[in-house]
Amino acid sequence: MNLPPVPAPDAVTAGWWEATREHRLTVQRCTACSRPQHPPRSICIHCGRTDALRLDDAAGTGVVDSFTVVHRAPFPDLEVPYVIARVRLDEGVICLTRLTNADPDSWRIGDRVRVDWIDLPDGRALPVFVPAPAEPPR
Ligand code: ZN
Predict the structure, then answer these.
(1) 76-98 pLDDT per residue, tens
(2) Count of helices and strands (H, E) across the chain
């Protein structure tokens, strides 16, 4: 899969990117108000704390919240069609991502998905989502 440029880690996202090297999807959680947020920020968007944020491993499962099939790529090297989606993780946060491993026209809002990884040349990995069984694992 060809990809557009992936942003470099910064002070706020470095830990999140480090976990992708081990194919671990993480979600930032505030230990003061217990609420999750994504992407990682330097401040809790719920309670405003800046000193209570940590990264927790996510289950890696969720549902398709919204998606679009891209037929005209913004960069000439991107292979089309591809699917850009909002996935609502089971932790409650939204990830902007890609859906793969299915016909682009077969996706439906509410489909169960699980994370899969595209390894990047620098050792990081990019999370994408693929079809998952309809019922979450117990
Ligand atoms: Zn908070």
Answers:
(1) 888 999 999 999 999 999 999 99
(2) 1, 8
